[in-house]
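We emphasize that the prediction below concerns an isolated chain of 244 residues; any contacts that depend on oligomerization or on bound cofactors are therefore not represented. The input was used exactly as deposited, without trimming of termini.
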Amino acid sequence: MEETKKSFWDNFKSVFYAIVIALIFRSFVAEPFSIPSGSMIPSLLVGDYLFVSKMSYGYSKHSLPLSMPLIKNRLFYTNPEYGDVIVFKLPSDNKTDYIKRVIGLPGDKIQLKEGRLYINQKLIQRQFLEEFVMRDRYGNAVRYSKYNEILPNGKEHTIIEVSDSSPSDNTEEFTVPEDHFFMMGDNRDNSQDSRFIQVGFVPKNNLMGKAKFLFFSHDDSAAWWQFWKWPLAVRWSRLFNGIK
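Result of the prediction step, given as a token string:
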């Protein structure tokens, strides 16, 4: 009886320590994140799974499970750079996880005119790559243009546009407040981002971490119970790719 009791407590302690270690790793080193929408196509696809580095910008309460208010201000803070892909808490509710790209730093003036991005009144370079057709979430075929965009620090990334005349392609000039950032999705005509009041400027304390690399990716061609289709549903070429 004594041996059974000891064995139970040994097992309990092992599980407890494993949970604590996992929580520490998730809070201060890296956390997995899945892509639920197409707002970051072509850089990130629905069904991508990636690791977010918690060390990249220091730590806030949002680094902790359930955003426990144990960290008052940001600790060990490091500034994000143009082009960083960041997971953050939506400022309007401080609960919902979003992932977008840093387009504007504190003090920057951001504007879109006829689909073209201006930072501090300077037109940002973009180079046409190709046209392609992709189905939207309703199954309709939509023609896109793909561009390579070059940010002020020389960081290059790929964006897609349906056209340069959608409502979000012409905006007011936004001035990014101190300790805030302007975020945009790479799928410029299908991204809820800092251009819209529902997101707005993102405070530095809401940054959770920098997206580093993919560890898994699958399309929607196999249901969870269709195990025989799983290998065909995996996007093998995307596994362990870094995120640019």
